[in-house]
Amino acid sequence: MIDTGNLERQHQDFFALMDKISIHKSEGQVKAHASAIALLLNQLSGKLKIHAISEDKFLYPSLMNHSNSSVKTISQNFYAEMGGLAQVFEEFKSNFATTNKISANPAAFLSESQKVFTALQRRVNKENTELYPLAAL
């Protein structure tokens, strides 16, 4: 049995940071708060990296070596899916990691952040409801 409490707490941190970023709904708000948004985005990125390391080091090896073949298969699928989302997030962060990059194209930031955050929220919710319960088996 793996304790997923810390991983779940990290998920709540992601939601809180995404909410703080997403309160800026207009191009003007994004431009006016680009510095704060860049800081929050970089904090989110750091937390996501730490989270991924934790999952890769503790959660996935245990689940992928589980005696139940269904648990193995589900965890392998989750692991494979995460690679694509991680790459999408890294590209997004690279495009908007600084105040200048956000200020230069607030419309693109608004559009891309909505897409990336929706995908990330979907993934986190799926982990909470489908993957983490397997750790209790």
Structural features, described:
The chain is mostly helical. The chain has one domain. 84% of the residues lie in helices and 0% in strands. It is built from six helices and no strands. The protein has helices at residues 5-22, 27-32, 34-64, 69-96, 99-104, 106-131. Helix 1 (5-22) runs antiparallel to helix 3 and helix 4 (69-96) packs antiparallel against helix 6 (106-131). The N and C termini lie close together (6 Å). The model has no long low-confidence stretch (mean pLDDT 95).
- Give helix and strand order, one letter per element, not per position: HHHHHH
- Total count of domains: 1
Q: Assign an overall shape.
A: elongated
Q: What is the percent of helical residues?
A: over 70%
Uncertain regions spanning at least 5 consecutive residues: none
For the sheet with most strands, the description reads:
none
Total helices: the number is 6
InterPro entries: Hemerythrin-like
Protein name: Hemerythrin HHE cation binding domain-containing protein
